[in-house]
Amino acid sequence: MSVTEMFSYLQGFLSADQDVREDIRKVVQTLEQTAREILTVLQSVHQPSGFKEIPGKCAKARELFCTVRTQIAQLKTKFPVEQYYRFHEHWRFVLQRLAFLSAFVVYLESESLVTRGEVAQILGIEVVQDRGFHLDLEDYLAGVLIMASELSRLAVNSVTAGDYSRPIRISNFINELDSGFRLLNLKNDPLRKRYDGLKYDVKKIEEVVYDLSIRGLAKEAESVSDK
Amino acid sequence: MSVTEMFSYLQGFLSADQDVREDIRKVVQTLEQTAREILTVLQSVHQPSGFKEIPGKCAKARELFCTVRTQIAQLKTKFPVEQYYRFHEHWRFVLQRLAFLSAFVVYLESESLVTRGEVAQILGIEVVQDRGFHLDLEDYLAGVLIMASELSRLAVNSVTAGDYSRPIRISNFINELDSGFRLLNLKNDPLRKRYDGLKYDVKKIEEVVYDLSIRGLAKEAESVSDK
Amino acid sequence: MSVTEMFSYLQGFLSADQDVREDIRKVVQTLEQTAREILTVLQSVHQPSGFKEIPGKCAKARELFCTVRTQIAQLKTKFPVEQYYRFHEHWRFVLQRLAFLSAFVVYLESESLVTRGEVAQILGIEVVQDRGFHLDLEDYLAGVLIMASELSRLAVNSVTAGDYSRPIRISNFINELDSGFRLLNLKNDPLRKRYDGLKYDVKKIEEVVYDLSIRGLAKEAESVSDK
Amino acid sequence: MSVTEMFSYLQGFLSADQDVREDIRKVVQTLEQTAREILTVLQSVHQPSGFKEIPGKCAKARELFCTVRTQIAQLKTKFPVEQYYRFHEHWRFVLQRLAFLSAFVVYLESESLVTRGEVAQILGIEVVQDRGFHLDLEDYLAGVLIMASELSRLAVNSVTAGDYSRPIRISNFINELDSGFRLLNLKNDPLRKRYDGLKYDVKKIEEVVYDLSIRGLAKEAESVSDK
Amino acid sequence: MSVTEMFSYLQGFLSADQDVREDIRKVVQTLEQTAREILTVLQSVHQPSGFKEIPGKCAKARELFCTVRTQIAQLKTKFPVEQYYRFHEHWRFVLQRLAFLSAFVVYLESESLVTRGEVAQILGIEVVQDRGFHLDLEDYLAGVLIMASELSRLAVNSVTAGDYSRPIRISNFINELDSGFRLLNLKNDPLRKRYDGLKYDVKKIEEVVYDLSIRGLAKEAESVSDK
Amino acid sequence: MSVTEMFSYLQGFLSADQDVREDIRKVVQTLEQTAREILTVLQSVHQPSGFKEIPGKCAKARELFCTVRTQIAQLKTKFPVEQYYRFHEHWRFVLQRLAFLSAFVVYLESESLVTRGEVAQILGIEVVQDRGFHLDLEDYLAGVLIMASELSRLAVNSVTAGDYSRPIRISNFINELDSGFRLLNLKNDPLRKRYDGLKYDVKKIEEVVYDLSIRGLAKEAESVSDK
Amino acid sequence: VGQDLEARANPASAVLSVFKVFQQELDIKHDKYERLVKISRDVTIESKRTIFLLHRVTSVPDAEALLSEADTKLEAVRQKIGQIAEELRGEDIYQFHRAFTPGIQEFVEAASFLHYIRHRSLISLEEINARLVFVGSKELDNKDSAGSPEALTFQVTPSDYLLGVADLTGELMRLCISSVGNGDIDTPFQLSQFLRQIHDGFSYIGNTGPYEVSKKLHTLRQSLGKVEDACYTLRVRGSEIPKHMLADVFSSRSALVDPDEGSA
Amino acid sequence: VGQDLEARANPASAVLSVFKVFQQELDIKHDKYERLVKISRDVTIESKRTIFLLHRVTSVPDAEALLSEADTKLEAVRQKIGQIAEELRGEDIYQFHRAFTPGIQEFVEAASFLHYIRHRSLISLEEINARLVFVGSKELDNKDSAGSPEALTFQVTPSDYLLGVADLTGELMRLCISSVGNGDIDTPFQLSQFLRQIHDGFSYIGNTGPYEVSKKLHTLRQSLGKVEDACYTLRVRGSEIPKHMLADVFSSRSALVDPDEGSA
Ligand SMILES: [Mn+2]
Ligand SMILES: [Mn+2]
Prior knowledge:
Chains A, B, C, D, E, F: It comes from Tetraodon nigroviridis. The complex is a heterooctamer, with 6 copies of chain A (227 residues) and 2 copies of chain G (264 residues). Chain A is mainly alpha-helical.
């Protein structure tokens, strides 16, 4: 085989790789679009009027997650499954956003922490790597941390909207999350940096609860929720 | 499962990942050591005295590649084969050096371009990804480009050592290589940058040949090699 | 001695240095793990339920400091004592965290400022450099400043938990600390930056006391503590 | 002891530390001044006229090294010897420059590689840390690498000045040095980056030798030096 | 003049410049020390006990300003008067602090805004640039803004100390100041950033007044001060 | 129009913009492919054997320029003609390469400098901006400068191929070009950097001519071409 | 000029004569670029001053007078943009875009700020562009109205518009904090609503916008946080009114509890 | 202006009236700064063009004519610097230094380049400053010579001078490479000598100079390397002459071997 033949042959590999990346990029773009739409739907919970409509908003988001699953199904067809990490950077960002959105929907619905398995299910992917396109642990954790910061904003806006009990529930939830993260031995990577942000969220929410407590609104909230 | 249990469980994954990376790093260090030893063996070809000993040096290098194969064999045991790209960054640098060293040995032995398959064989790895730990196409090409730059140095030192025919042969070889690379549609990545360096090697070698020509040394070389 | 012999000999030094650093890194990782565990124990004081259990929590933390002492004892064996500052960066971060944890325990126990000597004792190290592995003054001060920020959080959470007198005591303590720091002539370094954060803690705590005062809760607190 | 007393006491330490650093800075400034003067003396060897005066220039530099020794002697008195690494950053830069200048003088005098011991002797310091103010291995190596780059410049200017044999000797020397460095397992630090520059120096000098060879000037040089 | 002579001349200039800066730095350090002492004296006004002692504290601060004047007098001798802005950065920070301290003393004494002229007088410097070492307008304004932030803290602590009329007077004062600042067209510089902070001070004070109003404490305060 | 509608509208615009860019990128890739093919055809002139085939190679290149014209025609349809500079960056690089290739073909054919109009004609585009898709002056000049560097290489290889008159003609041509470029006032942009490279090309060619002169080969060449 | 010396040396050189033309073309272009940079700097400064002026709206009694003063200032900026349009007459505006984009963004910021204060809504790109139509080369000079009525327009690009609006949010945040300080509790709630819409708009656009927008998103998020915090504080403290001496509050600070009377 | 509205609202406010004065003071300062930035940009551009013109010196026959053209151009730059000096009249020049330092550095580069070409030596800071003395406010306007003969001077700072000279070395390197290309082998050796002196001067100053100088030292070292390489090449190739048809060379390229005839 001459050098020319050899390089022609190699070019085939390069083209194939570029085509795969091009294909992935396109699907990822549609995924990003859908993720932004879900975000738009869920962000309305910060509106004073949005509080009553949470179940409706969640249902709406759940519908859009169908689209997400279809799009991810398409994404899976674009490359051999064992090359997940070869192309990981292409979808890592959007996958973290989607993990966040899943976690946020689940929290709004049930005030509980979504598990990695649940996120995988919502997105129509696997948890464990050997079973196919999966949710990397770091990406799941990043999604959870993005949600924590959204919840600290929600605590503030709940009060503005006159809901005094939600912040207290958020506070408990976030504290539990913080303890959980303290069990992890994180490397000095982007995830660690994101985790360092969590303590600001914790503090912010504690201050909201404090404001309610000192004005006797926390008790009021409790008694309301007791009924 | 409580949040605490969940995070304890997740920590298991993180620890495992960190251990794998630690193990990989250690084996990669031994590989780097061996690569430096092979380089030291091959560097002697640039010495005036080294020109006659090329076959011996190549044999010596071939022996050291045995060690490389053993070390790569160890490396393979450190992580699941389908996670190659997850840890690629750890060995990418040394693998490119080893591809260069393989290409250089083969060139010194036969004045021909090593194929990706041959490099894989020398290193005891696969060409195609699905068959296991393999040589990424980009890493192979990077190795070839490092060799091109080494050859421009060799052309210069050949003249110093009084060998006037080798630069002309190198020139032909490098021109062929250059044409080959021109068939490739490279992305704007480190490889592309390395390839941009090739034209300086081509030019340098052409200038060596020019220097020989204008002094009538090129003809002399031809007539010698004709005999 | 030939150049080759000389460099072989020098490589011995480099390897030894790398081994020492590797050893240090490993022990430091275990220290970080223990520090996170102590933090988890002490974090519970921010919970409404945690206020009564402070003595118990402190005792628990004191126990874990035994582990810290054992780990630091190991750390000391990893390098010659006079090269403390050569490797300082490796343990500086965790040592500041441990100084903070010591200061926090001591404050929770006795509402007094831990001295550098006490911290050194808790960690099983020296105060003065010439006597061995010691606590750098800057690291001690950094630990104290981290505690100040933790106390501003504690003041907030005390109110939530219905303890109205603790914030006032914290306020006095932090004011004293602030005056103390004002005696120091700090360079423009990370410590200075941390110290700049202290004034936000002071202000926050003053606002908590204000909130109590304007609602007549401060007096209530005093009368309670008078009894 | 009140907090105020405690901080007054601590301020004593901080002031002492700042005074030490101030003192060190001042001596280091005088050292830098002397180092620049030595450099100015030695740089004249690049002048066409400077070649004959090398012994004189070296003698001049040797005299200035007396000043250096006096200044370093002063430096040593400014801080406790076991705190070398605490203040290392203050003199690291100038010590590397001085190691370079020592290596350059020794090379110009004897065309041999200065040992770490010789540099230490020229500067009036120790080699081994436990014996006092010493020359860190990395600083010695950095100095040697700076010299390598100066020698590649010298090879060029030697030719311009009509000295055709010096570049060939420099080439041999640098090749030996390169082999030496290849024995070292350098970390990914500034020293490694500097070492990466060595290969450009090697190549540059090889090209000078090539230019001489192809014009028959190398032989001429040899025959001259044979006499 | 030869190139060497020219550079010697320039080097002389640069050395002189460095010496001047060194001298300035030293005096500035003593100024910073005195400024911190004045601050410590004035900080006590935030203490409940401190409110009655304001005149005494102000007198104490006035005394310390004598030291400031002496120190600034020394500073003036360190550089040619027409090169004020060449070295401005060295004392800008401390001058702003001193302007703040002057403004704070004057406010505490007379509840009025210190004029630029008064600050200049307190510090023993000029107002107008051409008359010598002067107070830059931006530095005066920065000092005033630092005071505004201190006053918002004072309003909070006044309430804690049971003084309900002071916050209202502070509120009027700060509002007038705010109107003044609104007239200025600032660049995107540190002053602008500080001015943005003023809005938060105004807001904080408004909140204090509001808290007093809804509790009828504002009226009480007015009637007290009316008497 | 509501804020949401406005952002939808803007998003539409941005998406459209992205689509246009995507379309442009694709056509530009095909252009780059063709440009590389033309280059490969023309590269053979550097081979000893290639000198006789210049006319044939030029013809071959001319054919490939038909493809270029078709591809540029497609490119033109991808965006509104008056927004040339909005997307300029996408094709600037390839257009400069194509200008170079046009200039090189024209030089090889007629040893004259291609005009901007001729390049435009070869590429099927306009010269003047208001008439549509045109050749920016800077891009034309960049192309000419790339050719200059190619000609310096050609001068070297001509000698190797035994053609001693071509370098002298190239020398005259390049000198004229150099005079032309000296008339321009360039900004500190890539073109300026490229123009700085021209000086090295001129220098290189001068050296070739010098080498021919001292060997009497230049005269020989002239007398040959005089015939 | 130097080229003449050259030309005299090689009178017949075709190359030199075309390069002489090139020299002119390049110099003309660079000169135009420079002029645009200078006008853009003026536009920036005057726009910034308009923004400062507008912040005074919360502290003056006669807001209308101030707004009309802002109109006058912006009209002057508009005239400067007219100069830019004049320079760009017949040019591809993207060719010189980098020269004037900072000024145009600042103008969008100022114009949209004024528009918000007056109309409590977001000015659209079309509304901005509609104002940037200039008739004749000296529009102000009314005597010359018989001259060529050729309309000259300047088109703000969607990207510049977006970047200007992103900066507007910072000014709105400042306005919000000032309003609280001035005892106006209506404006903050209005502003938080409005800012949230813009924030949601930007997050809808996400990373499809120009790179600089993504960079500004962080600041935008912070501004929104500050405004939301301010509203939160107002709400929390408002919750205490009923429990303490309510009558008092009504009499002394009626504005606080009557949200319809905020300073619009 | 807005302040009037304010003042009308609080007619008695002393605070507002002093802040009105502050507003003026700040605006005057910022306006001056802006004007200086603009003049500085002009100085930069014209200096750069002078440098380009000077590079033509190796390719024109009548160097003197070109140099006098450069003189004229630099005189225009000087006038612009006169405007800067006018703006700075009575001011502390360091107050606005950041506004005009880029222009002044470029002027130093151009003036020292011209000086080198003419005198083959480094212009001193004093020589530069001696030229920046302006008599009267409109020095060019000679009719007005009866007016105030008050001398206005501009003082280039040593730092700006050093930074300009550091940049000069880049131009000298370009000149050197061009010279080789034009067959002038004398100039490169002269230049390498001169550049080496400047290089040694800068390394003597080391890190005691302003921070920007240290940054430029690397480029300076590279330029010196290029010039030394060029001289090396000339020497190496020169070594071959005696061995091949020496007569030929003498006849056809006498300039090459007669170093006294280089284009000075
Ligand atoms: Mn703004
Ligand atoms: Mn320049």
